[in-house]
Amino acid sequence: MSRPPVRAVALAGAAVCGLTACSGAHAGERDGLTVAVTSYPLEYVTEQVGGEHVTVQNLTPRGGDSHGLEPTPRVVLALAEADVVVHLSGGMQPGVDDALAQQPTEHLVDAADLADRPPDPHFWLDPVRLAELGDRVADGLAGADPAHAEEYAQAADRLGESLQALDAEYAAALAPCRGATLVAAHEAFGYLADRYGLRQVGVTGLDPDVEPSPARLRRAAEAVRDSGARTVFFEAAAGPAVARTLADDLGVTADVLHPIERVEGDESYPELVRDNLTALERGLVCHG
């Protein structure tokens, strides 16, 4: 799908802003900070760190695909009006990258270097990496709102402790599974696999909407047979068809593993992380 030129969208956003007199509504003129974020994991961290001092606007609608976020006038306007922007640059949302390049924001927290497995952006599946983002968000918020800097730092410390506890749960539960093969329909679990000593084999690559090639299907089938893997994991939002077809052909099961980039209803990061751990304990071949 083609997207409108960023410059044209930016001009449209500026026109809307002029009509509504929205420019100049900064932190000193209202209660708290307005923070624009571009995906759910960034929203979770920002809400935990900012607490009552921030209003967080996730530019990806609840349940929406963050990979599909385009620089519409609404998005450009939100980026322009935010006191702080929390974003993951580097290609996951190239339209937003372009918009921010043409319309820089004073307080930008960019998580790009935490996602160092290009082109896989899902660094938040490693709780240790997500804790580091919490510290950066605290610094970014403090830059825009120095009066509450200590509160942001303390909140980031609390978030870090909760994420370290999740990491400890994973490390203890998956210690007997080191070296196990994680067969995933959507190849989104590389950071999780790296952290806990698993070997990820993807059926479709990073894009769950792309039909797997015969070569990829053969590779995944060989990995299941050679490793004795007993589960093919799939993302619920993408549908189970590919995973279940492969699982049925090989006589293994299919189960859900959540990449936590789009969420529905009242789902939360800690809840989904623990659901993933339960699925991994159930589906991986572990020893001891």
Automatic annotation (TrEMBL):
GO MF terms, alphabetically ordered: metal ion binding
Leader sequence residues: 1-27
Biological processes per GO annotation: metal ion transport
Domain of life: Bacteria
Keyword annotations of the record: Signal, Transport
UniProt record similarity statement: Belongs to the bacterial solute-binding protein 9 family.
Protein name according to UniProt: Zinc transport system substrate-binding protein
Taxonomic lineage from the root: Bacteria, Bacillati, Actinomycetota, Actinomycetes, Geodermatophilales
